[in-house]
Amino acid sequence: MIPIAKPIIGEEEISAVTEVLRSGVIAEGQRVKDFEAAFATYVGTSFAVAVNSGTAALHVALLAHGIGAGDEVITTPFSFVATSNSVLFTGAKPVFADIREDTFNIDPESIVEKITPKTKAIIPVHLYGQAADMKSITEIARDKDLIIIEDACQAHGATFEGKNVGSFGSGTFSFYPTKNMTTSEGGIITTNDAAIAEKARMIRSHGSKQRYYHEMLGFNLRMTDIAAAIGLVQLRKINDFNDSRINNARHLNRGLHNIRGINLPYVDKRCGHVFHQYTVRISNDISRDEVASFLNKNDIGTGIYYPLPIHQQPFYRELGYSDSLPVSERASKEVLSLPVHPSINKEDLDTISETLREIMV
User: Fold this and answer.
1) How far apart are CA 111 and CA 105, in angstroms?
2) In terms of CATH architecture, what is 239-360?
3) pTM for the full predicted model
4) How far is CA 63 from CA 9, 106, 234, 235, in A?
5) Which residue of 68, 221, 327, 339 has the fewest C-beta atoms within 10 A of its own C-beta?
6) Which fold has domain 11-234?
7) Where are the alpha helices (H) located in 298-343, listed in sequence order?
8) 254-283 as b/e: b if 16+ CB within 10 A
């Protein structure tokens, strides 16, 4: 089987974890601080605050910005449900704007249509490893005095007009095993605002700056030194990982470019796409699900991200969401992600292309 995703853990990561275990300091400690400093430098922000998941990063970032009951946060329905669930965790209301046909990222024009007096923030998702239109989104936020919290959980190292994602507003990243880099589980918040960083640190640790003195309601969302040790090693490798993904995507483009019914990933010229996912669109007499089934039967892993937009999820229907977001709804029926991670080789990529030719002719 050619898997759709595979974490790359080598002897360096194993040695780093062993060193932490032998030290006896296995909870949050110096390695977390070192990882925060290194990741902030990588993204180009003044501060980074490590937590135990990408979902926690979103939740904490929202709370650190004061988002709460009565507020509205505009985001995309074409994402993992954690994006909007994190808004619900704060007591605020997610409001869904539709996406662009080409990048699958949130459409700035749709954002403008969704703004109300209750709107406090925008969460653009840099989906599949490609930045959203941060020029337009930044202009909207500046004009309407809105907060930007970037969901960069799939976009470590991605850029927009040469600037790293996670540095336009407050950034949030995930280090789940399938991401471009991993800490096993983990997340991080990036910001240039010292007050936001300090508040985020308090929220992740029971509202405390000093042990056993609690100034606000907080949670236990800390990263461990074990996770941070893995992250420090992976961070040294992330550029090579991303280069492999980009080269694999180019190889797939060459193999698939003239197959009828397969629309290749669109890359905005302003973006440095890091291909967390290589996502095609199936527009043929044959359905996306039939194509996925055929590939799986031929030992090629696939992913569908996402088969049901968030606003159509059963839980959100129960909450009263009944939006019509046609671009998102259409994309959910047509997108198909193919293996592009650094563990696969050119022979694997050629097998993917050849197998797709068999079913798409």
Assistant:
1) 11
2) Alpha-Beta Complex (3.90)
3) 0.97
4) 33, 22, 28, 27
5) 68
6) Aspartate Aminotransferase; domain 2 (3.40.640)
7) 314-318, 326-334
8) ebbeebebbbebebbeebbbbbbbbbbbbe
